[in-house]
Amino acid sequence: MPSHRVSVNGEVRDLPIVNVGAVSVALLNLLGDTALTEAAAEALAALVPAEVEVLVTPEVKALPLAHALSVRTGLPYVVVRKTQKPYMVGARRHTVVSITTGTPQDLVIDGADLQRLQNRRVAVVDDVVSTGGTLTALSELLAEVGASVAATLVVFTEGEARDDVVSLGHLPLFPAEAGIDADRGAFAGGAPQG
Q1: Is residue 96's pLDDT more than 80?
Q2: Complete DSSP assignment for 140-192
Q3: Is the overall model pTM greater than 0.90, yes or no?
Q4: Angle CA(159)–CA(163)–CA(168) in degrees, nearest 5?
């Protein structure tokens, strides 16, 4: 399986290269990787601007990172859901197309969390920012509910370099044929390159 080696605060991982359509990406998955999540949170905690009052994270893969960062900084966090749940009252929603999903998805803030965000300076916490589509939609949604984004903290940027995001490193994009087709478990280009 093709992979891309990364190091985060002393934790080394070989990320699988996975085809997501027009390109392949080095797939960072913090879910279940406690050591990597803790290492990233430790490094990012030192980079949280002093004016930040609340951490905000889109579900799912960055959720353990936001929790670990909250423990280290003492800042509360809010999870922006990707579907509206029946228990949500007065929820706010925004739609985005992400590079990793390729389909429209909602970003939803539960009405119960709106008070925690209104007139607050927030830091968006995510695992990877690539095209910035999710980040832009999330920033627009946060502005709609009265929060201002003071920082965006991620483990990695991906693709084009970004100076509007605080990150611990950068991941390149790979040609589509370099990755594993996640649906079929086969190399996107047919046979492995190697």
Answers
A1: no
A2: HHHHHTT-EEEEEEEEEEESS--SSSEEEEEE-EEEGGGSEETTTTEETTBSP
A3: no
A4: 70
